[in-house]
């Protein structure tokens, strides 16, 4: 069963069980009003989010044009070299990995996905077994999953669009949590590489 089919099945079960439960309790009108209210809220949130996301993406474009991304990449290069010892220093994969991690650190979730795919494609060129992920691929996937973030731009944008009084108050906690998650995932990654000799 494909991933999308499984997700669709899970959603169908959740929706069906909610409708059945509401019907058994004589509250079927709650389902209708909640669905309409949720759809309205989703559209309002999306519209509000457009302006905030444009602002953050504009700031990030300025950061890129001013060389801030290159500065971050420069400082990341020695660390990335240690994390990905199997990737040659001047290989295009190294640049793609650095850009992916830089976008992750700036909280640009939407930008990380295409950069991560590009990095994986470059890593695949170094892969002797094309049907098996390399240690470098697993490390990159783990780092993108935990997503160490200095500025959680997307979360700030969502909180702002949802009407938060102080949308930036989560910066400190996000930084601490993402840092510890990244350290933990790197330890597990190294343990798995040692155990399975990847």
UniProtKB/TrEMBL annotation:
| Boundaries of every Nucleoside transporter/FeoB GTPase Gate domain copy | 47-153
Query: Mind telling me which InterPro entries this protein's record contains?
Result: Gate_dom
Q: Which UniProt keywords apply?
A: Membrane, Transmembrane, Transmembrane helix
Does the keyword Membrane feature in the UniProt annotation? yes
Q: Where are the transmembrane segments?
A: 7-24, 36-59, 71-87, 93-112, 133-158, 170-188
One Pfam family matching this protein: Gate
Instruction: Report the protein name in the record.
Output: Spore maturation protein A
Q: Which organism is it from?
A: Sporomusa silvacetica DSM 10669
Taxonomy of origin reads: Bacteria, Bacillati, Bacillota, Negativicutes, Selenomonadales
